[in-house]
Automatic annotation (TrEMBL):
The keyword Mitochondrion does not apply. GO terms for molecular function: NAD binding; oxidoreductase activity, acting on the CH-CH group of donors, NAD or NADP as acceptor; oxidoreductase activity, acting on the CH-OH group of donors, NAD or NADP as acceptor. SMART domains: UDPG_MGDP_dh_C. InterPro entries: 6-PGluconate_DH-like_C_sf, NAD(P)-bd_dom_sf, UDP-Glc/GDP-Man, UDP-Glc/GDP-Man_DH_C, UDP-Glc/GDP-Man_DH_C_sf, UDP-Glc/GDP-Man_DH_dimer, UDP-Glc/GDP-Man_DH_N, UDP_ManNAc/GlcNAc_DH. One of its GO terms (biological process) is polysaccharide biosynthetic process. This is UDP-N-acetyl-D-mannosaminuronic acid dehydrogenase. It comes from the Bacteria. Belongs to the UDP-glucose/GDP-mannose dehydrogenase family. Keywords: NAD, Oxidoreductase, Signal. Residues 1-21 form the signal peptide. It comes from Romboutsia lituseburensis DSM 797. Transmembrane segments: none annotated. The lineage of its organism: Bacteria, Bacillati, Bacillota, Clostridia, Peptostreptococcales.
Amino acid sequence: MRKKVCILGLGYIGLPTAALFANNGYDVTGVDINQDVIENLNEGKIIIKEPNLDELVKKVVGQNMLKGSLTPSESDIFIICVPTPITKDKNADLKYIVKAVNDILPYLKVGDIVVLESTSPVGTTKNIVKSILEKTNLDIGNDIYLGYSPERVLPGQIIKELVSNHRVIGGINEISAEKIKNVYESFVEGEIYTTDTDTAEMVKLIENTFRDINIAFANELSLICDKLGMSAWDVIEYANKHPRVNILNPGPGVGGHCLAVDPWFIVESSKDLANIVKLARNTNDYMPTYVFNKIQKLTDKTKKNIKVCILGATYKKDIDDMRESPIVHLIDILRKNNYEVELYDPYVKNYEVLNNNIYECAKNSDFLVLGVDHTVFKDLDYKAILEVMDNNIFIDTRNFFNKDNIESIGYKYYLIGSSI
Ligand SMILES: NC(=O)c1ccc[n+]([C@@H]2O[C@H](COP(=O)([O-])OP(=O)(O)OC[C@H]3O[C@@H](n4cnc5c(N)ncnc54)[C@H](O)[C@@H]3O)[C@@H](O)[C@H]2O)c1
């Protein structure tokens, strides 16, 4: 008989994972508290944008290998992929995990496997998940196998990377880790390394923290180079000619559900030690304010209504995810300071100031601000856009355009991270 998998949380991680298990011989129930997600899924449709996911979901739903449900059901394997946001005070908000684990309690039986996939503070599996599961009076580690199996996928390449990436799986004991490894081997082609749950949780957190710190270094350079009258982009390009130097690109800040969140879980656990981690977070969080300051400096103070047209507000290029996006923060800062803002982003379906007619969006604007380097933005007609604008200031936060090309159209071009 086919093994049953029940996946709780059908977002960017849970749904592709569910579809891959279903495509590899498991009988999968996908559970979400969002009715829209479930209704669409049961029609073979998805409400997020991720390359190749729609075809795969359509296929496995059509084959009856994946179905959606608002509640969990009996299964052999339970996988939890619910959100783990931070609170206003930058502490981990684990309420979604707590609810999801409680939700599966009535369906657990001896021999079942429970896997936490949500990015979590160190100790979550061992302390929080295990203690909730203990309400069943089953022996966790012997009757129920428990572990942590984090994701390290790149949005836009999730299906490919879920299969090809190496994985680190932490078990509450060795047998749990081995059982979980065995489950993921059904579709993972990368190496699977097993360890304890605390180590696996920490590995996931420091991967994202490593990237956040490196981006913060580039962003700090961008502030320094701007002040000293040069371009951080040039400085970084030349420094990277060194065989052992590889500085990342600066930008308007760091967003997403991972890099902008996970380092805080380390800070929360080790406030007196995680100094660089915290500083990096604060540096990256400051970047939208830096972009705003640049706009403010270039603002015509004699004009009453200043309008800013923003190109792109997702947290990175060519995706639809706006969570923690620095451009969303920039929009908020601009509006709080009485700038009129309209957003053009073909990846975004709904947003307060969204106007997906680029000419209406840019009409009477003083500033055109490139927030995200979506590939499609290369093909916009910038001459026609300039014709509907009131002023000609072009701010590039990503070094996406060539200054000479943009200025030859008639704009005045400013690059974030440089004095130009
Ligand atoms: N998105 C990424 O690239 C990425 C990468 C690695 C790790 N992660 C981690 O994976 C986890 C999930 O992230 P995501 O991006 O898929 O989130 P998401 O917000 O896209 O999806 C989470 C889903 O869980 C549902 N949900 C909430 N509570 C539930 C419950 N009790 N039962 C069933 N469903 C419930 C929500 O309705 C939502 O659809 C997070 O911890 C995140 O940090 C995400």
